[in-house]
Amino acid sequence: MSKIRVLIVDDSVVMRRLIGDVVSSDPEMEVAGWAPHGRLALAKIPQVSPDCITLDVEMPEMDGIATLVEIRRIYPRLPVIMFSTLTERGAVKTIEALSRGATDYVAKPSNVGSVNESIEKLRNELVPKIKAYCHPRKPVPSPLSVSPASASPAPMSTPRPRSTQPCDLVCIAASTGGPNALSTVVSALPQNLSAPVAIVVHMPPIFTKCFAQRLDESALLPVCEAQEGQRVDAGHVYVAAGGSHMELVRRATGLYVHLTSDPPENSCRPAADVLFRSASKLGSGVLAVVLTGMGSDGLRGARLIADAGGRILAQDEASSVVWGMPGAVVKDGLAEQVLPLEEMAAAITRRVAKPVVA
């Protein structure tokens, strides 16, 4: 099997060396080449034929955004992973890059004690993403093409009773590939949605605020980064703040946000399990939606929502960047329906719609 070839584009010699060490240390990958700015990167792409590009946001001569635009014009399917600093400017540029077609992003190591710790942080965050985007994915057979011998479903847990009443709360979880997936779903939700939407996406601090602002610009519903003690109202979207878990709590005057700095769950903070667990205590009117992402964050919380009579939707494998989180929910028998990303907003809207009174 041929190795995944990575072109590293960064004006920092130190970052090029760090990324190169991470790539070279993995037996499935190799460095295809280096470039200190976008112009040289564009010239090198046809020379080295990379399978993936890591692209710094801030560079002289031709920055990451301008380079990305040209890459997407010439190579629309070439995976491009942006690298940026954990600053507000870096976050704004990264979110803009995602909206312009970047495949994903990784935050540069900051406040890390040693070179070895920086390499380990990069290895944990970058390598799985490169492999997720570059490894050939197994085709997902259509129901009509499955032979009778292979048509038996995988073992699933005992089905839970689910409410058939309209949902009054929507909770969405996403990770790898999540920013673009969430943009697709949230921008398609109607302005008169009669339930609040709470979102957990695995992003660092500062990034979630910029991401919420970008969603707010494209959505019909108002979107914000959730604040401690904030009232949760129907027809509004609340994004969990990076670095904090988000819970929803019922009080006499309504539903409110509670942020905590409790330890990470599933190596994440915010974690979908924390949001789902709090939502499961609110009754059977909860709709949980699990979108693309690595790992299984959200699975345990989804079980609690299902046990309480809530409903669960999962993104299908074909439209997911990584079918880890939604796949775990599906394999556990929790998903009421498994849908392509483009159909998710309509499915949410149908389940939230209030019945027509004759």
Keywords, separated by commas or semicolons:
single chain; 358 residues; alpha/beta; Rossmann fold; 2 domains; 7-stranded parallel β-sheet; 5-stranded parallel β-sheet; 35% helix
Task: Give the structure's gist in a few sentences.
By secondary structure, the chain is an alpha/beta fold.
Protein architecture, described:
With 358 residues, the chain is of the alpha/beta class. The protein has 2 domains: 4-134, Rossmann fold (3-Layer(aba) Sandwich), CATH 3.40.50.2300; 169-352, Rossmann fold (3-Layer(aba) Sandwich), CATH 3.40.50.180. The chain is 35% helix and 20% strand. The protein contains 11 helices and 15 strands. It is elongated and about 60 Å long. Mean pLDDT is 90; it is low at 137-158.
Number of strands: 15
Order of helices and strands: EHEHEHEHEHEHEHEEEEEHEHEHEH
Q: Give the CATH architecture of the largest domain.
A: 3-Layer(aba) Sandwich
- Distance from N terminus to C terminus (CA atoms, Å) equals 64 Å
